[in-house]
């Protein structure tokens, strides 16, 4: 049986290492709907903290709040399109990171003190120099 425990906005923010205004913003854009106690204070139950974990992990994966809203709203269409576009974006970023890694490894192993003078390094920046060649 799931816990009936509830937490305050401060407790949840501290647990997730988030400022409280982030949780309030997520509420204002419709990602969260915490309950309110008799004094009007936000109260978060287990389902809320699961949703916050999904939002946080999705943000860390580079998703926008609109993309996350699409994933969390079962009534919205286009969930697969959002995910396919995000996967394509992640693939592009990973390919770029691989190029950056290879460039950095080359620079580490290169004997040239000034990496800009290394003839083997040059091909790694040719795309940025396109249009500057005489």
List the keywords.
mainly alpha, 5% strand, elongated
Describe this structure in words.
This protein is mainly alpha-helical. The protein has 2 domains: 1-76, Multidrug-efflux Transporter Regulator, Chain: A, Domain 2 (Orthogonal Bundle), CATH 1.10.1660.10; 77-134. The chain is 56% helix and 5% strand. It is built from 6 helices and 3 strands. It has helices at 9-16, 20-28, 46-60, 65-72, 79-109, 126-129, and strands spanning 7-8, 35-36, 42-44. Strands 1-3-2 form a 3-stranded antiparallel β-sheet. Helix 1 crosses helix 2. The protein starts with 6 loop residues before the first strand and ends in a 5-residue tail after the last helix.
Mean pLDDT figure: 90
For the secondary structure, the number of strands is 3
Overall helicity: 55-70%
Principal-axis shape: elongated
Number of helices: 6
Distance between the termini: 72 Å
Tell me the structural class: mainly alpha
| Uncertain runs | none
CATH architecture title of the largest domain: Orthogonal Bundle
Major sheet: size, sense and barrel closure? Answer: 3 strands, antiparallel
Rg to the nearest angstrom? Answer: 23 Å
CATH class of the largest domain, anyone? Mainly Alpha
